[in-house]
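Lab meeting, action items carried over

1. Structure of the two-component assembly. Owner: GW. Status: complete.
Input record:
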Amino acid sequence: MIRLLMRFLRPYFPQVGGVIALQLVQVTASLFLPSINALIIDQGVAKGDTAYIWRMGALMLGVSIVQVVGQVGAAWFGARSAMAFGRDLRQAIFDRALTFSSKEVNAFGAPSLITRNTNDVQQVQMLVLMTAIMIVSAPLMMVGGVFMALREDVGLSWLILVAVVVLGTIIGILASQMTPLFKTMQVRIDTLNRVLREQISGLRVIRAFVREPTEAARFDRANHELADTATRAGRRMMTMFPAVFAVMNLSSVAVVWFGAFRIASGDLQVGQLTAYISYLSLILMSVMMATMMLMIAPRAAVAAGRINEVLETSSSVVPPANPVTTVSRHGELAFSRVSFAYPGASQPVLEDVTFAVRPGATTAIIGSTGAGKTTLVNLVPRLFDATSGTVSVDGVDVRDLDPDLLWSRVGLVPQRPYLFSGTVASNLRLGKPDATDAELWHALEVAQARDFVERMPDGLDSAISQGGTNVSGGQRQRLAIARALVRRPEIYVFDDSFSALDVATDAALRAALANETADAAVLVVAQRVSTIRSAEQIVVLEDGHIVGIGTHEELVATCETYAEIVESQFKNEEVAA
Amino acid sequence: MSTETETTTAKAPAKANERPKYGPQHRGGGPMGHGQGTGEKAVSFGPSMRRLLGHLRPELPRIIAVIAMTLVATIGNAVGPVILGQATNIIYDATVVTRTPIDFTGLGRTLLTALAVYLVFFVLMWASGFIINTIVQRSVYRMRNEVADKITRLPLKYFDGQPRGELLSRVTNDVDNISQSLQQTLSQILNNLFTLLGVLVMMFYVSWVLALVALITIPIAGGVTMVIGKRSQKLFAKTWKATGELNSQIEEAYSGHDLVTVFGRRREVAEQFRAKNAELFDASFGAQFISGIIMPVMFFVGNLNYVVVAVVGGLMVTGGTLTIGGVQAFIQYSRMFTQPITALASMANLLQSGVASAERVFEVLDAEEETPDEHGSLPVPVKGRVEFEHVTFSYTPDKPLITDLSLVAQPGSTVAIVGPTGAGKTTLVNLILRFYDVQAGRITLDGIDIASVPRRELREQIGMVLQDTWLFGGTIRDNIAYGKDGATEEEILAAAKATYVDRFVHSLPEGYDTVINEEASNLSAGEKQLITIARAFLSEPTVLILDEATSSVDTRTELLVQRAMGKLRADRTSFVIAHRLSTIRDADVILVMEDGAIVEQGNHVELLAAQGHYYRLYQAQFAAAITDEEDAA
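Predicted assembly:
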C-alpha cells in the first residue's frame, strides 16, 4: 500500500506538505484557545475590565481566524490531493486494463476488474482523504497536548500515560472485533444480493413452479444472517463513543483528585489543574482519531493490494515495436502450426492447427463444446496470441501488424453479443463513427434487423441499455452482426452468431450475408451442420486438433467425427419422419 | 476557575458529534461503487420522513426507553461538569480563599458523586446505543423482507420494464443507506436536541438579556449551514451522478473489452473515461471540500459567540446587573449551545440522504401489484384441455400484438408454434401462465377461465422449460428437487434418469452434490437444459410449455435434450415453441404465427398440402436439411 501511495501521491507532495503545514498552524491555534478563554474570564470578566475583554476578545478572534483559515486550507489541499490521487489511480487502472488481452481480462474476470477500478480505488482514496483532513492532525495534537500538559505539571504525566493506554486498548479491542465483523457483513450483503438477483432473474421459473414460499424463506434466512452480523457490528460501534466519554470523564475526576494532593504539597496551581484537563482531553481525542486509522487502514490495504495486482499485470499481447502499416488488401488469413495453451494448463487448447481462409470464400469451424473453436477465432484479432505458430493476414504475422490496421480489417461477431448503452446507431457506429444512416440501414437489412429497428419507437435512435438487455437475444445477435457489417472489413469472424435466431431468420440472414461478404474472407464457427454445409471449406476440430478439412461431401465420406456429427443431427431432425 | 473545567468537558460530546460528518462520506464507498446515486435531494422530505418513522412504529416501546434514557443521560451530562466544578471550588476555596488544608474527605465524596454520575451517564448512553442499534437493525430487516415480499406480488410487467440492477440496489444499497443514516442520527439527534433545550432553559434562567444576545448565533449558524449544506448537497448529487456514469463506463469497457479492442476503440474509450473522470474529480473535490469546512466554520461562529457574550457579559457585570458566577456559567452554556446546533445541522444532511433512499424504497413498495387472486377452482383431476377464446393482448397500448386469437389444445396433444422472431410466440407462454393477463377474451383450462382461479393453483398444473435456463446457486439435486415440494430422493433420481441428467452427473466428481455456481459455468448449456427438463419432469404437470431453442448446445447433448423433451411431452398437453423439424412434424396442431395473429393452423401434412405460409417457411428452411438427409442415406 505504501508503494502505491508514494507512487500516486508524488505529484501532490506540495499539496500534502500544505496540508501538514496548515494542520500544524490549526492545531497550534487550537492549543492556544483554552488559555485565552481562561484569561478572558479570570482577568477580564471577573475584574470587570471591559478594555481587557475587548483586547483579549480580539486576540481570540484573531487566533480563531487563524484556526479556521488553517482548517479550511487543509480541507482544500486535503480534498484536492485525495481526489486527484483517486482520479489518477482510476485512470491508471483503466488505461492498464484496456491494454489487457482477453487472457488477462478472463484471469481477473470483468466483475473483479470493475470492483478494483471503482470500490477499491474509493477505499484507498477515502483513507487518503481522512488522513489529510483528520488523522494528520492527530499526532500534532498529541505532541502539542503532551507538551502543553508537561509544561503545566510533570508529576501528573503518569495519568496521561494511563488514560492513553486504557483508551487505546479499549478502542483497539473494539476495532479488532469490528474488522472481522465488517468483513463477514460484506460477505452477507453479497449473499443477500445474490439471492435477490437469482430471484429476480428466475422470476418466471419461481412463479411457474409456485416456489414463492421457499424463496421467501431463503431470502429471510439471508436477511436474518445479515441483520445478525450488522447488529453485532453495530453494538461495538455504539460502544465506541460512550467508552471514549467514560475514559475522558474518569480521567478528569482522577486529575482533580491527584491534582489536589499536588496542590496541597504546593507543586501545582489551581488554574493549572483545569488547563491540565483541557490538554488531557485533547490528547485523548488524538488517540481516538489515530485509532480511526486502525479501522480504515486494513480495508484500504486490502484494496491497495488488489489494485497493485492490476497495475503490475502486463498484457500478454504486446503491440509490435516496428509495426507493418501497409498490406495488400486481400484479406487472406492463414493459420500455420498454431498452438495455444493457458499458462499452467496441462492440456493445450489448440495444437498444431494449420489452414488458410481464402478471400471470397467461407470457412466453417465445427466441433463439440470445448474443442477450441472460440479460442481459435480469437487469435485473429489478437484477443490472444498463439503460444506457438503464427496467424497471418496477407502473409504478415498478426503480431507484426499495426494493431489498428489489423482491427480495421477484422469484423468480429462474438459468441456473446454485447451491446453498449446508447442508441442503436451509436452501437452500429462503434467501428465506423462516420457511417451514414443509409449505411446503417443497409447493414441492418442484411442482418435481418431492419424490421424490428423500424418498429422501435425511435428507429436508429432508440435507446439500448447496458449489455443490450432491452432487446431479445436474437435481436442482440442481429445488431451485433450489423455492427460488424458497417465496418465492411476484409475478414469476417462469426463466432456461433446465429444460435439465438429462429430457423426462418437464420436462413434469410445467411442468404443476405452471402452477397454482402462475397469478396471477404469469412470464418464461421457453428454447431449446426445445416448452417455451414454450403461453406467452401469446413474445418473439424476435436480437442484442439484438426481432424478433418474439406467440403461437406468430402468430410461425410472421409472424416469420422464429422460423419458422426452429421448423423446425430439428421437422425435427430428426422426421427419423427 | 471551575468554568474552564466544565467548558472543556462539555466539548467532548461535540467532538463526538463530528463523527457523523465523516459517516456519510465514508459510507460513500458503498453506493458509489454501484453507481447508485442515493445522495440526491429528497423530493418530498416531510411525508417520506413521516413514513420512514412509521416504519419504526413496531419498536415504539424501545424508542420510548431510548428517549427516557437519553433524557436522563443528558441531565447527567449537564450535571457532571457542575459537580466536578464544585470539587475544583473546594480546592480553590481552601488554597486561594481560606488558605486552609484541603478537605480531602469532602473532595473525595464530591468526586465519588461525579464518578457515580458519569458512570450512570455511561451506562445509559451505552444501553441506549445498544437499543437504538437493535431498533434500526430490526426495522431494516423488516424493510428488506417487506420489499422482498412485495416483489412476489408485483406483476412481471414491472420487472420486464426496468433493469435488474436498479431494483437490486434499492433493496441493498438504499436500505443500507437508510440503516446507516438512522443509526447515526437517532442516537445523536435526541441527545443534541435535549442538550440544546436544556442549555436554552439554563441560559434564560441565568440571564434573558444574554440569552437573547446568544440566540443571534442561531440564525448565523443556521444560515451558514444552509448555504454550505445546499451547496454540498448539490455537489454531492453531482458526485453521485458522475460516479454512477463513470462506473457504468468502466463496467461497459470491461464487459465489452473484446469489442472495444477489436473495433479499435481503446483510444476513444480511454478519452471518454478521462473526461468523465475529470468531471468526477471536480464534483467530488468540491463536495468534499465544502463539507469539510462546515465544522471549522461552525467552530468559528461558536468562538464569535463566545467573544460577544464575554463582552456583553463583562459590561453587565460592570453595570451590576449580573454576577461574575452568572457570566461564568453563561459563557460555559453558550459554549455548550453552538455544538448541538452544528451537530443537528450535519445530521439533517445525513437524514436527507437517508430519506432520499427511503423514497426509492417506497417507490418499490408503492408499485402497482398484480390483481388479487379469484377464488374459483379447477376440476380434479385436470384433464388438460386448453382453449384460447378471442384473446387480445399487447404489452403497450399503442402497439397491438395479439388480436382475437382463438385455438384449442386437446388433452394430451402437442401444439407447435412456429413463426419469425417477435411474432408473439413467447407471449402465449406469458398468457397461459398468467405472467400477464389477457386484455380481452379468455383462456380456459378444462373449461374454467384461468383468471378465475388462484395463480398458484393454475401454475401447479403447468410445467415449463424455457430457453433461458435458470438454475439457482445450489446443488444439482436441489435444483431438480425444485420442481416439487418435498420430493424424495427416489423421485429425484427417477426424474434425473428419465431426462439423461443421471448420465453426465456420474462424470462429475461431486455427483448430485455438485454446486452450480452463479454463472453455472461448471456445466455446459445442454447439461443445464437437461436439469431444467428434469425439474419440470419431477413436477408432473398436466400442461407443458417448452421453448425449444437449444442455442450453443453441442450436437450430442442436443440429441439427449430432444429425447428428454419427447419423454416429457408424452401424455401431456404441450405447447412447444418450435425450432426443430421433428417437433413440428410430430405435432397434432401447428400454429403459424405472424405479427401476433395465427395465420395458419393444422397438422404438418395438411399445411404442406395447403401450400401457404407454412409451406413457404418449410421450403425455405428445411429443403437443405432434407437433401442432406437423402445424401446421407
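2. GW to write a short summary for the group page. Key points so far: Chain A touches chain B through 186 residues (CB under 8 Å). Residues 572-577 of chain A have pLDDT under 50 and may be disordered.
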